[in-house]
Amino acid sequence: MSEFKRAGNRAADALRPIVIQRGFTRHAEGSVLVCFGETRVLCTASVEEKVPPHKRGSGEGWVTAEYGMLPRATHTRGDREAARGKQSGRTQEIQRLIGRSLRCVFDLAALGERSILIDCDVLQADGGTRTAAITGAWVAAQDAVNWLIGQGLLTKSPIKEPVAAVSVGIVEGTPLLDLEYTEDAACDTDMNVVMTGSGGFVEVQGTAEGASFTRSEMDALLALADKGIRELVQAQAAALALPLPR
Amino acid sequence: MSEFKRAGNRAADALRPIVIQRGFTRHAEGSVLVCFGETRVLCTASVEEKVPPHKRGSGEGWVTAEYGMLPRATHTRGDREAARGKQSGRTQEIQRLIGRSLRCVFDLAALGERSILIDCDVLQADGGTRTAAITGAWVAAQDAVNWLIGQGLLTKSPIKEPVAAVSVGIVEGTPLLDLEYTEDAACDTDMNVVMTGSGGFVEVQGTAEGASFTRSEMDALLALADKGIRELVQAQAAALALPLPR
Amino acid sequence: MSEFKRAGNRAADALRPIVIQRGFTRHAEGSVLVCFGETRVLCTASVEEKVPPHKRGSGEGWVTAEYGMLPRATHTRGDREAARGKQSGRTQEIQRLIGRSLRCVFDLAALGERSILIDCDVLQADGGTRTAAITGAWVAAQDAVNWLIGQGLLTKSPIKEPVAAVSVGIVEGTPLLDLEYTEDAACDTDMNVVMTGSGGFVEVQGTAEGASFTRSEMDALLALADKGIRELVQAQAAALALPLPR
Amino acid sequence: MSEFKRAGNRAADALRPIVIQRGFTRHAEGSVLVCFGETRVLCTASVEEKVPPHKRGSGEGWVTAEYGMLPRATHTRGDREAARGKQSGRTQEIQRLIGRSLRCVFDLAALGERSILIDCDVLQADGGTRTAAITGAWVAAQDAVNWLIGQGLLTKSPIKEPVAAVSVGIVEGTPLLDLEYTEDAACDTDMNVVMTGSGGFVEVQGTAEGASFTRSEMDALLALADKGIRELVQAQAAALALPLPR
Amino acid sequence: MSEFKRAGNRAADALRPIVIQRGFTRHAEGSVLVCFGETRVLCTASVEEKVPPHKRGSGEGWVTAEYGMLPRATHTRGDREAARGKQSGRTQEIQRLIGRSLRCVFDLAALGERSILIDCDVLQADGGTRTAAITGAWVAAQDAVNWLIGQGLLTKSPIKEPVAAVSVGIVEGTPLLDLEYTEDAACDTDMNVVMTGSGGFVEVQGTAEGASFTRSEMDALLALADKGIRELVQAQAAALALPLPR
Amino acid sequence: MSEFKRAGNRAADALRPIVIQRGFTRHAEGSVLVCFGETRVLCTASVEEKVPPHKRGSGEGWVTAEYGMLPRATHTRGDREAARGKQSGRTQEIQRLIGRSLRCVFDLAALGERSILIDCDVLQADGGTRTAAITGAWVAAQDAVNWLIGQGLLTKSPIKEPVAAVSVGIVEGTPLLDLEYTEDAACDTDMNVVMTGSGGFVEVQGTAEGASFTRSEMDALLALADKGIRELVQAQAAALALPLPR
């Protein structure tokens, strides 16, 4: 079978151009604009000196996330969820995923009884908004932790290691890394993979669209994801190596 | 490491007792009580001669699902979602999963422009409610298809093959099949796997709780799931081989 | 006028077959499946060691109820109230009725500052769901009280006497006891009557459908209800005389 | 037992002063301020040339009601239901009762495929708001029918006879007619009775508060209600005999 | 340009007949029916011995308002906001305006840590409901303050001066004072002006409908509003000079 | 009185640095990031070939707006309105204002039966979000109109002239143009003024915070606003004179 031809001659195993811009807005303790190609997500991390009820008095902190998409982030304008009066199932599913992924690399006891809330708002969507959100959210959380240390509220980081995410999928028989929107719409199987900097799996969510997929297809996709996440973790580190703007 | 000891001396790779009782209620076109041990889910399939807006005029049908849990299905009474005025993110995530899983084995064109709605209501919960729901929902859908054929509304089945689901997880280092509640609460990694009768993957959702998991752990879990699903598909076939009560 | 002919040759003054199955689910302090013919309602009683705001600090307890119907409990699938985001007026009216009926036979001071929440969920509907719910709810509440006594949390029962409920109505001129769905749909007048074991009235709710009803019709209906409730109270006692399953 | 002493030396079987003022506001097709003593309810009847979905194409009309209470109609300010975002169970129960009561005296076929919507808004509450509302709503509906006849949209009235309502209850052993707020709060049993001008029952809703009530108590209450409703029907007729203001 | 001819030969700079009836209902600490011609708004002031969270512990009180319109206050029946489950943007805008206007003439420290809640409910609408509401709300607030003084809860009034409001607009080139509904619907520019008794501006809200308006048009409208508010403040004083009914 | 000293030595009558960046996102027909100093609002204009019900069949189009604020646009994180399930009164008030302001300069008949929806989402807030939103929304609308003309769907522009908005206020006795957050929080009187390119008023909304304001204060503020809006209209024209990025 001939290989699927990607836009801009991108190789099947190549990420889109990754941009991680810290200090994008000024009020949040961490504020990161993350771009996976044309997908752009603003991730802000807010520190609050309180925890949700199930953590009160535990001495442990909490990390959680909310996700939203501006109505015209997409080709066709979507309803504003605030106007409709509820978040869609998709929105809730994604924000739960982001929260779990972040918590997996956090030592909640070391965070102390406070919360970090990550807001991931999609300014422009072109596939992979949830994986970009997780990748950017970790950098925003890192900046919020740095702020806590800078304020003397923490002496050491409660973050155990990096976490990043990428989508993979099979389009016309070809396994591809980091799907853009048109690829996502055309794919038979797609998988979102969340991994730590040390290569452990945090989440694997594979879904057949149409036909089911085989074990060897899954293996091919996991290998691609592993490659992509290594590169994303490098991009996170590079962004954090720069001085924070302002 | 010594192996984790399961309740009732259950083997690590054993399902709980599976009961699939068809014709449990009488109004629905398909009505199945499915039990994975103490987890009991009532799955009803309702045929409606209309489709949602995105399918109107397409000549294709639709299969969708809703999920609910009775307030005292659990150890501690949960809020009634109807009284609270909204479905939780967890509920929406599960019902979307059930719907996708069923659609994957349906030929929607062969169904014709009508809908099958699956309601999965948990009467008693002891872990694995979503996997039991998928497994039972497929049998209820099969009975609804049989009803459509019996009514002369369809001449051949739009169902391509069986679909079933099981949870797997690692508890104290031991990979286990079909987690009950106490195992689920204690596990480090858990994974819900949805597969077709022919062994294809429909959904793989693995989540690290606490520590991330390795590739070899994932392989062990997928092998367990494969075994469990083969047995569940046999149980579905056995239930369907009996005459429908009433 | 010739008498209305009931399904299955049931006499005008006969109840449908009554089944009261205790211990139907295992987590609740009381769990009863009650069947009035094909109407089947699961009633669970949950004990909570707190009371609503208007009872705090009063030394008195509270008994309340919630009611729901599975979407396909009925001939035609109804909307799921949790998905629609609110309970219908009918649902609220019924759950208020169940709560009032139970409280009428409870000594709330003797219960102590704790709550019993009764959930009545209709698995299958064929008329009389609210009367079956009240009749079953009382048995579930009794089991919850027995559990409280068994736990040493109460030394004597705060339940003063039994309470049960039945519907009566006039169909084609014939007064009937315990209406099933087709009778309910056809009736001119229907009445729900809630009475105590000692024959006192707790609630009488008579409604004309179409034409108004006369005083002598009301008297005939009240006499039928009285007969039915005596039999239901016997059925409750018989169910409670058996050992609790498990 | 000595008889309960009512405020203002009112006799046990006496209504409060009844005022039925037509043409209270000017936009509605019928607009009536009804006062049962200090209880004041504004009832407006609006004609709409359409029917709800279940009546479309039936050739029949519909009559329905909505009920509300101004936040400070009561001694203590209540929440505004519009601000809270939902109607209470009590509100829904009352508006369903008003609608059923009105429909019972309407020939819906003679009304033609149009609706009469009755809004009952309590300006001041002192017990008996639902019975005042029904009594006033019928007069407002009558004025709306007169308007339809005046417009040439109907040639004869679809109203078969009057309907009115009153509360009765037992306070300290004394059966009382038309309870005001302090009596309502103190009563052991209260009953709302809706009857037609010809003496037929439309609704009987008796509720024990505290102890259950006996058959002879019910008989005493029904006799009182019958007397009260005869007087209310006379008051309705007297109000309608006057020329409509403006 | 020939001058626009108003209904009833009203002069361009004349208010409609103003009625301010205190003590309209009996439970509220202040209760005023205010009529600007056919516009009738019931304003009640309720005293509560608590403040919203942002004022707790401040030693200062709070004054706020809610606004509603009976469904048939208007020519065509509007939806009941409580039934629809939310207040419209218009409703919220108006109640925020009323609250701000009242607070502007209140010394919140002198009020002490308690709240005055003003409910403004439109019984009949004919243009200018918000300006009538503000004008009447101030009188109701004054009566509530008098009640507080009468109860010994305050020794001097926290109200610094009167506040009143009026609408002005340009219809067919003619600047008009106090628009009624048909004028409001026809106007090119309309402005709501809230002023204190001493002639200070509290709110000025001018809106072009269709074409924008010029500075000289604004000046003409402000002069008209100033005249109208002087007269409204006199009407408020006259109403307060009478003894409170009851 | 000595003059209030502004941050960065800004003159009392000076705007903050204004940036109007077109083509900020790529899916919308018009997409503008507008910055008034640190206030940054993303305004997108979406064309839809349908109109709301009240315009159907009229031959006229519609222009409307929605407004939102990212949760961490502000110093302290605010609730996400989509999660809370409703838009605040403030949000609704602002989006109604933006819609009215735009419609005032649109010839809706010339637009044809289609809609332009403006989404104004605040990425970072530092006072004046609504005035920045209006100013940017007009540019986005202009780009959407250019797109319609480019597509051959319109032959001439339905936009009659520019519209822009600015805030003015009095802080410590000094009238200031274009308030930033700290000034807004400290001001005694603030006013939002919307004007057309030709100097007509579209909206004037002045509010006293604390003390009322005088006529001469209003005149001073209106003069400042006039100056600011002239400059904003020049900035709009300058932005539109550049080629659209992409």
Explain the overall architecture:
The structure is a homohexamer. The first copy, chain A, is of the alpha+beta class and about 250 residues long. The first copy, chain A, is about 30% helix and about 30% strand. Chain A contains 6 helices and 9 strands. The first copy, chain A, has helices at about 80-85, 90-105, 110, 130-150, 180-185, 215-240; strands at about 20, 30-35, 40-50, 60-70, 115-125, 165-170, 175, 190-195, 200-210. In chain A, the strands form 2 sheets. Chain A has a 5-stranded mixed beta sheet. In chain A, helix 2 (about 90-105) packs across helix 4 (about 130-150) and helix 4 runs parallel beside helix 6 (about 215-240). The interface of B and C includes residues 70 and 81 of B.
Mean pLDDT of chain A: 95
Number of helices of chain A: 6
N-to-C terminal Cα separation of chain A, in Å?
52 Å
Instruction: Quickly give the structural class of chain A.
Output: alpha+beta
List the helices and strands of chain A in order.
Answer: EEEEHHHEHEEHEEH
